[in-house]
Amino acid sequence: MKKAVLFFGSSLFLFASCVEKQIRDDVVLTPITPREMTQPTATEPVELVFDKKYSGSKPVKMRVHKDLRMSGSAQLNPQSIKTVARLAKNEKASLTVFDLRQESHGLINNEPVTWHAERGWANAGLGREEVLRKESRLLGDMRIGTEVGAVKVRGIETAESMVRSSGHQYVRLTVTPHLRPSDADVDRFIEALRELPERTWVHFYGREGELRPATFMVLYDMLLSAQYLTFDEIIQRQQKIFSKVDLLQVNKPADWQTPYQEDLVDFLRKFYEYAKSNPRGEEMYWSQWLRR
Question: I need a surface site. Which of 53, 64, 193, 214 has the fewest CB within 10 A?
Answer without folding.
Answer: 53
